[in-house]
Amino acid sequence: MKILIIEDEKELAHNISAYLSDENYLCEFAETFQQALEKIEVYHYDCILLDLMLPGGDGLKILEQLKKQDKQEGVIIISAKDSLQDKIAGLQIGADDYLAKPFHLSELAARIYSVIRRKQFGNSNIIKLHELQIDLLAKTILVNNEPVILTKKEFDLLLLFIGNKNRVISKSALAEHLSGDIADMLDNHDFVYAHIKNMKKKLVDAGYRNYLKTIYGTGYKWEA
Amino acid sequence: MNKLLNRPLKVFTLYALLVLACSIPVYYFIVDYIWRNELDEYNEIVKSRIESGLNKLSLDKDEWAQTIALWNKTQPGTTIEKSVLKESRPDSIYSIMRQKQSANEEDLERFRGLSTYIRVNEDIYHLTIEINVEEAHETVFAIAAVTMFFFIILLAGFVILNRRIATQIWKPFQSTLERLEAFDLNSQNNIDLEKSDIQEFEQLNQALYLLIAKNISVFRQQKEFTENASHELQTPLAVLKSKIDLLMQNESLTESQSELIASLNIPLSRVSRINKNLLLLAKIENHQFSEGELVNLTELVNQNLDFLEEHLIAKNNTVEMEICEHCVVNANKSLVEIMLVNLLLNAIRHNQENGMIKIQLTNKKLTISNTGNSSLNKETLFKRFINSSTNTPSSGLGLSIVKEIANRYHWHVDYQFVNHFHQFSVKF
């Protein structure tokens, strides 16, 4: 899987690349508007991470260019701008997702995973993982072909883990994933435990072997 | 406070009074002088007429004596006496106060007299002519009365003219004043002052234009600075956050190291929250949110309560709701939601274990209350970076944002401590 990271902050681009590299992702970088334009014209990527404020031009112009060339790449905007207008503008031009800085790498990885799945599998987007079958569109789960009912939050957590296999996900990242913008306003992130405990119990009860490991004091890791 | 135009009016009035008062004796002396001169002239004329009249008569000595006696009886004001002098003396003029001859009144009258000697048929006669003059006090009184009358007319004129000038000439000034009072720096609209053909007012307007333009530009720069600073901070924060995420993947970390690294996330997310909130405040103040739409508050409250339910359960809080159906406000939806979430989270965060949260919503007012022990300081509650509680870390901006959003729509935010409840309300 090829990913283009269009981001002028080198450090951030390399951190993203380092995090993603284990998972069969190959990252390329573009630091300026011009570099980005050249790369998208010549190569094909599975997913493009796009910063909006670039030296040399507005990131949205790159997005417009992509759509003009009828490219099918999934685009995730990663921007310091966090207003609804910016999000709407980005999504209207054709971005698949919008992530405001600062974000957890696990969150980004899950979004990349989901964008690529959507682009590749379209209508029958079913993830099969050992005895687990997740239908991303219908949002249903089968364990050993038996349906398991998860709440929306439990389902969201499961997707985050699937998108970050073999990675340690911090409690803080989980809380942010669940409650979005307001996570940092909450005193404690204990509510995360409750959801994970419930999810685990439902899956284990249905006969799924426990792949989700607790990393003491830090977070969780889905080992597969 | 005095009105500006009343000051010169007072001074002018006093000055007019002084001048007019001084004019009274001057007028008197002039009138009296003219009066006496005229009478003296008149007496001279009478004298020469008598002299020439008597010289034309050719009478003998007895007839003379009879005529003079008769004259003295019938002509009041003049007396003729035969003088013993051989030579005539120069005339003398005098004023005298004496009782009126004709009337039997008590008061004295002033007379102007001419004492002269006339020569009739070689004899010298002493002739005195007296004529009644208006008394000094009567003249003074009349002059004073007329002067007072004119002073009153002058005063009335001053007041009326003053009033007219005040309304007409000061009109551009008043309009400038009104527009200045209505001016809101926050709205960033340049002010438009009425043109004036009076030099001073135009100067004032020009000075104001300059001052306001400078203010607006400083204000804008300050806002832009906050916004840019917040934006610039997001990227290093993102780098920091991603480094922590990467570091956590390191398998050689000990348990305590992992814990330490994970705990970095808490202050980090606080910094990014403060940063986001500052940016939000700057944006609200800069009016960067699009104008209103009809927002269904009932729906919004219910949605957010669902979302926050687990946090309520975690603290074992009960919720009591009195919510009207389909209550709407006209405002920007994101802003209303931010305000609502801030208030709800505030109530949840600062609530006690097993406490209660009350939510009341009508078309006019939203009230969110939570259990509490003692009243908070209302003065500083909505100010930036002032935390009223020490037990929970917060950005210190939540309530300022609520206040700022409410201000934008001219809603009224209030805090009260009632029956062991912290009560926050927004009046629409």
Characteristics:
heterodimer, A: 224 residues, alpha/beta, 5-stranded parallel β-sheet, 4-stranded antiparallel β-sheet, 42% helix, B: 428 residues, alpha+beta, Helix Hairpins, Heat Shock Protein 90, 3 domains, 5-stranded mixed β-sheet, 11 helices, 56% helix
Characterize the structure shown:
The complex is a heterodimer of chains A (224) and B (428). The two termini of chain A are 19 Å apart. In chain A, α2 (33-42) packs parallel to α3, α5 packs across α6 (152-162) and α6 (152-162) packs across α8 (190-205). Chain A has eight helices and 14 strands. In chain A, strands 2-1-3-6-7 form a five-stranded parallel beta sheet, with helices on both faces. A four-stranded antiparallel beta sheet of chain A has the order 8-9-10-11, with no helix packed on it. Chain A has a three-stranded antiparallel beta sheet with strand order 12-14-13. Chain A is α/β, with parallel strands linked by helices and 224 residues long. By secondary structure, chain B is an alpha+beta fold. Chain B has three domains: 6-98 and 108-154, no CATH class; 199-280, Orthogonal Bundle (Helix Hairpins); 289-427, Histidine kinase-like ATPase, C-terminal domain (Heat Shock Protein 90). Helix content of chain B is 56%, strand content 18%. Chain B has helices spanning 6-56, 61-74, 136-169, 171-182, 199-248, 255-263, 265-285, 297-314, 333-349, 378-381, 398-408, and strands at residues 78-82, 92-99, 108-120, 123-133, 293-296, 318-323, 328-331, 356-361, 365-371, 412-418, 421-427. In chain B, the strands form three sheets. In chain B, strands 6-8-9-11-10 form a five-stranded mixed beta sheet. In chain B, α5 (199-248) packs antiparallel against α7 and α8 runs parallel beside α9. At the A-B interface, α1, α7 and α8 of A face α5, α6, α7, α8 and α9 of B.
